[in-house]
């Protein structure tokens, strides 16, 4: 059941709010242009009208969560500010002398009442309002990603294996103290961390012995395989397996097992990535997805576009992105959607011993008749199908072989091929889409659209500097997604306030929370 709504009317009525909260205050603007009343319908299944103590109004709690990301407050800080700050009280729709719930209520509401799925529904509702008000038209969108640092402390491989081993023993203690002591609980606590190769080897050996011993105890049914123990064992096994230099998808911390090491240009960070799609004209973010930091940018274009099309029926006329999105699969998708791709294409490198040779771009490809013409005008139809394993797309392509008798007497041979077997050129299945994209970027319209990528860089700066996206507040991929969604919602409603302020037809003149 829900508590009855607390009216803003008190002994002073709304006199203090009108006198102290300026008419152009950010929270007053947001209150006028954004309707949050939908949250009751979204959370209808999370409250029972007949069971339990009266719960806080869901719209009041959502507003409290958003205040955290608008002003960078922690759970404790936002509650304290809601007690003392009249602007907060006005935005929350409570009386001047009204009590504010404990900070633990904020944490419970965010993780249990809403959660990842419901927060995504909130973002969808906000974007829907932007569409209804004409802010999002889908003419041209921009896609990009930004780093999110995990809330963890990195340690050496030795320290990581040791911590995972300690976690297994601590979990065993909960079931049987004597078995935990027999498995080496005291030794795990007393031995100091070591970063030397010898220390690492000792930790690996101790971890292997522990895994074998726990397996024996499980078979003897002296302890049971609980969900917590299963997770701790899996993390220990992964920490041991990741010790190799060539290991991929390495575990960074047992505290946040979903965090991964990411790299973008010269930036390296532990944690996650936020992938966003933004409407270029309005700056409204229409789609967002959180992944571990080692996920490639190109792999997220398709799911982001599909989701916004399913939810909002948005199919952009143009899409702009950097070279991280120049996957053939992405270009094919955009072409099938009749979306113009303003995407940077990586240059075709083809240098041997410092001499520049003709690249695949210098060959004229007829994809309908499967023919290839070289710069000298020779045509090759001698080809066979190959499989393209680049980016794990597994799409076929064609390997064209030019006749050695033509290549060896060709005046352009010094710029084309060094051997006497003739030039061999691989043409990707996606080559027509690549050439189409290059042709687009060669036009003045394409160049201007690509230059406008700075707008999403500004949006990323707003998300990281003023909406708290730079460092994740929570741990685990699901909660990292909540962090990203909250930052995105806060960013969008601030943008709505800026764009719609001064347009009374878009106002909600009273706080929906106030009774």
What does this structure look like?
The protein is built from 19 helices and 14 strands. With 515 residues, it is of the alpha+beta class. Among the domains are: 15-133 and 492-506, no CATH class; 157-241; 351-429, no CATH class. The strands form 4 sheets. Strands 1, 2, 3, 4, 5 and 6 form a 6-stranded mixed β-sheet that branches. α14 (328-336) links the parallel β5 (318-321) and β6 (340-343). α8 (157-173) packs antiparallel against α12 (227-241), α11 (197-219) runs antiparallel to α12 (227-241) and α14 crosses α16.
Q: Could you give a short description of this structure?
A:
This protein has 515 residues and is an alpha+beta fold. It has 19 helices and 14 strands.
């Amino acid at each position: 059941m829900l508590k009855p709504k607390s009216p803003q009317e008190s002994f002073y009525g709304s006199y203090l709010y009108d006198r102290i909260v300026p008419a152009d205050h950010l929270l007053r603007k947001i209150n006028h242009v954004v309707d949050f009343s939908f949250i009751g319908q979204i959370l209808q299944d999370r409250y029972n009208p007949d069971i339990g103590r009266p719960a806080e109004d869901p719209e009041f709690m959502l507003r409290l969560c958003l205040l955290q990301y608008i002003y960078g407050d922690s759970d404790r800080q936002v509650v304290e500010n809601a007690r003392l700050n009249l602007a907060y009280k006005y935005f929350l729709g409570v009386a001047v002398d009204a009590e504010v719930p404990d900070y633990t209520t904020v944490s419970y509401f965010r993780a249990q009442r809403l959660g990842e799925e419901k927060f995504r529904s909130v973002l969808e509702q906000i974007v829907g309002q932007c569409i209804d008000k004409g802010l999002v038209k889908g003419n041209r969108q921009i896609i990009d990603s930004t780093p999110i640092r995990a809330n963890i402390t990195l340690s050496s491989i030795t320290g990581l294996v040791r911590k995972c081993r300690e976690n297994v023993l601590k979990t065993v203690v909960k079931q049987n103290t004597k078995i935990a002591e027999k498995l080496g609980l005291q030794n795990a606590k007393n031995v100091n961390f070591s970063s030397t190769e010898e220390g690492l080897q000792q930790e690996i050996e101790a971890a292997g012995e522990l895994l074998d011993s726990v397996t024996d105890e499980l078979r003897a049914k002296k302890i049971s395989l609980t969900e917590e123990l299963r997770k701790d064992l899996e993390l220990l096994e992964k920490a041991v397996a990741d010790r190799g230099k060539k290991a991929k998808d390495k575990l960074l911390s047992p505290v946040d097992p979903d965090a991964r090491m990411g790299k973008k240009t010269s930036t390296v960070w532990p944690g996650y990535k936020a992938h966003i799609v933004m409407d270029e004209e309005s700056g409204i973010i229409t789609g967002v997805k959180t992944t571990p930091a080692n996920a490639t940018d190109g792999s997220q274009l398709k799911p982001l576009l599909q989701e916004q099309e399913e939810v909002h029926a948005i199919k952009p006329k143009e899409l702009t992105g950097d070279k991280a999105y120049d996957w053939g699969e992405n270009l094919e998708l955009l072409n099938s959607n009749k979306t113009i791709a303003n995407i940077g294409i990586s240059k075709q490198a083809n240098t041997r011993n410092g001499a520049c040779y003709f690249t695949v771009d210098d060959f004229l490809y007829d994809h309908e008749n499967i023919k290839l013409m070289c710069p000298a005008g020779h045509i090759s139809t001698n080809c066979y199908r190959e499989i393209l394993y680049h980016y794990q797309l597994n799409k076929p392509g064609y390997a064209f072989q030019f006749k050695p008798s033509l290549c060896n007497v060709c005046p352009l041979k010094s710029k084309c091929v060094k051997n006497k077997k003739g030039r061999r050129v691989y043409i990707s299945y996606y080559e027509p889409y690549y050439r189409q994209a290059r042709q687009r970027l060669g036009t003045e319209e394409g160049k201007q659209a690509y230059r406008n990528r700075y707008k999403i860089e500004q949006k990323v700066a707003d998300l990281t500097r003023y909406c708290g996206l730079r460092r994740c507040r929570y741990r685990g991929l699901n909660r990292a997604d909540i962090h990203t969604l909250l930052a995105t919602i806060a960013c969008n409603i601030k943008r709505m306030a800026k764009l719609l302020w001064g347009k009374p037809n878009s106002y909600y003149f009273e706080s929906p929370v106030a009774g």
